[in-house]
Every structure is written in structure tokens, then in C-alpha cells.
Amino acid sequence: MNSPKKPPQSRVVDKPASNAWQGNAARPKAAAVAKARAAARAKKAEPWEVTPESLACLDAVRSLLTALNNAYVSTNQIQKLILDIPVLAARCMRRVGSKQVPTAETLAPALTSMGNMGLENELLGLLEDMTTCRADLLEAEAAAAAEEADPAG
Length: 153
Known about the structure:
Layout: H1 21-25, H2 28-42, H3 58-69, H4 75-83, H5 86-95, H6 104-149
Helix pairs in contact: 2-6, 3-4, 4-6, 5-6
């Protein structure tokens, strides 16, 4: 006779859901910021990626925007201003597919190849990334201040 197989008796019974997640739910932003900082330290940022150190270039970005509004500014002046913003210079080189370090000699052909619209797109992307980076820094500072003020949570 063929009898149906019985399931093994040592079968695991479903366990109730864990409540461990509730401990982190109180401080999701602080945990996310800490995780992001750890990830940022673990990998070295590419030259075209915005880091908190890149925010020091905001005055140079303002100067570039002012120069771009001037109809009489020369290409060489714009090129020099772009070289003052290492992240933007690296993005311009990357946009044209070059892996060279941005210098006056290598950036000129890249800017010619990109054109005004390409430079505008790269600059807008850079400004967006810098804004996001600044907001993340402010959020992390606020979370750290909140933790110091109320460590019991």
C-alpha cells in the first residue's frame, strides 16, 4: 500500500513577527544619515561627485553664473572659472568621454564639444547635487543636535 508521506515532525513553526524594527523607527533619519556617512567614508568619491568639501566652491559657482550672464565674457575666462570648480571641470570631461585630468589644455576641447547647452546642463546638475548635499548636511546636523538634546529619545 502507498501511504502519503507525512511532513517531518521537526518542522519549524511560524514565529511571530519581530518587534526589533521599532527601536530604529524612533530615529530613522539619524540611522539613515549614519549609514550614508559610513558608506561615504568606505568608498572614495569620484572627482565628479559632490561631497561636503565641494560646497566650498559655491563662490566660484556664483562667479561663473555672473560671467555667463555677461555677453562680453571670453571663452578663456569661462574656462578659468570652470577650473576653479573641480567637480564641474571633472563633469565636463566625463560628459565628453575623456578620462583625463581637467587642465586648461584638456578642458578647452571638451567645452567646445559640449557647447553652451551641455555646459548649462552640467551646471544645473551640479547645482542640484550641491543643494541636495547641503540639505543632507543640515539634516544630519539637526538630527545630531536633537540626539544630544534628548539622548533618551
